Amino acid sequence: MSRPPFLVPPAGVRAYPLVTRRGAFAVLDIAPAGPPSGTALLVPGFTGSKEDFIALLAPLAAAGYRAVAVDGRGQYESAGDLARRSYALGALAEDVLAQAEALGAPAVHLVGHSLGGLISRGAVLRAAAAGRSPFASLTLMASGAGRIARGQRWRARALGAGLPVLGQRRLWWVLQPKAETSELWNFLRGRWLANSPAQLRSTGRTLRYEPDRVAALAATGLPVHVLSGERDLAWPVVELDVMARRLRARRTVIAGAEHSPNAQRPTETAAALADFWAAVGNGPGVAAAERSEAPAAAESTEPTGPVEGG
C-alpha cells in the first residue's frame, strides 16, 4: 500500500462527494489560481485511496492543472456494497467514466496507479468501444501490461483467502504485526478497515488474472505515459519498459522511487505529469501522430531498496 507523506490536505484542496450517474465518490479536488491548463483524474491502486495522491495536488495546481483524486467504489470513504459484480474491472472502469464526465472538463488527463492503471485502461477501452472520447491522455503509474508478478499474485491470493476466514481486523495484524501510535499508522489501519471486503477480494482477483490488453490500448491512439519508480516488484521495471515501447508511449522513471512515486517522490512525479500533459494538450487523441513517430526515451537509474506491495 502507498504511504502518504502527510495527511492534512494542502491549502486550496476541497474534500467532498463527487456526484455522478453511478453514485457519489469521495474526492480531493484542487484548482489553480487562474484558468486551468487542463483537468486530471487520479485513480488509486489496491488497498489505496485518494490520499495516495495528496502530495501531488499542490504542485499540479501550481503547474496550472486542476487535479481530482478519488476513492473508488468501496474504497475508504466511498460507499460500496456486498455484490462482487460491483467490483469487476468493467464496473469500476464505468465508474471512472462517470467520474470523468462529472468533472465537466472537455477532456480529462487520466492517471491510474497500480490497480488503478488497469481500471483506467479499462475506462479508455470502454470509451473507445462506445465511440466516446472523454480523455486527453492516460498515465499508467507503476501499472503493467496485465497481471502482477508471480510473487505478488501469491500475496494477493493469500489476502483474498484470509479475508473471509480472519476478517479485516485480524488480518490487519497479520499484515502489520507491529503496532504503532503514529498518525500515519492509524490512518492506514482505519483505511484498511473502511475498505469493502468484497472490493478487496474482487480487485485482488483482477490483479491476479487481468490479461495483456496493450495492443487494444495502442489501437485507441490515445497519448499514453508510462511512469514508474526505478524498482517495482508488482510489475518489474523492465516489463514496463517493454510495454512503453509497444505503446509508443512516453516513458519516465522517477529516481529514488519504487512502487509509489506519487508518494515517494511527489515533486518529481508532478513535474513529469505536467510536462507530459503540456506536450499532448487537452483534446482527445491530440499528439497521437507525433507520439507514434518518436517515443520518448526513459531515464536510467540503478534500483535500490525493497518495494511496497501492489
CATH superfamily: Alpha/Beta hydrolase fold, catalytic domain
What can be said about the biggest beta sheet? 8 strands, mixed
Which architecture would the CATH scheme give at its second level? 3-Layer(aba) Sandwich
N-to-C span: 6 Å
Helix content: 40-55%
Number of domains: 1
CATH C-level class: Alpha Beta
Provide the gyration radius in Å: 18 Å
Q: How would you spell out the order of helices and strands?
A: EEEHEHEHEHHHHEHEHHH
CATH topology: Rossmann fold
Strand tally, please? 8
What can you tell me about this protein's structure?
The protein has 310 residues and is an alpha/beta fold. It has a single domain (14-293), classed as Alpha/Beta hydrolase fold, catalytic domain (Rossmann fold, 3-Layer(aba) Sandwich), CATH 3.40.50.1820. 42% of the residues lie in helices and 16% in strands. The chain is built from 11 helices and 8 strands. It has helices at residues 54-62, 89-102, 115-129, 150-175, 183-194, 197-209, 214-219, 237-247, 261-264, 266-280, 288-293, and strands spanning 14-20, 23-30, 38-43, 65-70, 108-113, 135-141, 224-229, 250-254. Helix 1 (54-62) crosses helix 10 (266-280), helix 2 crosses helix 3 and helix 4 runs antiparallel to helix 6. The radius of gyration is 18 Å and the shape is globular. Residues 285-310 have low confidence and may be disordered.
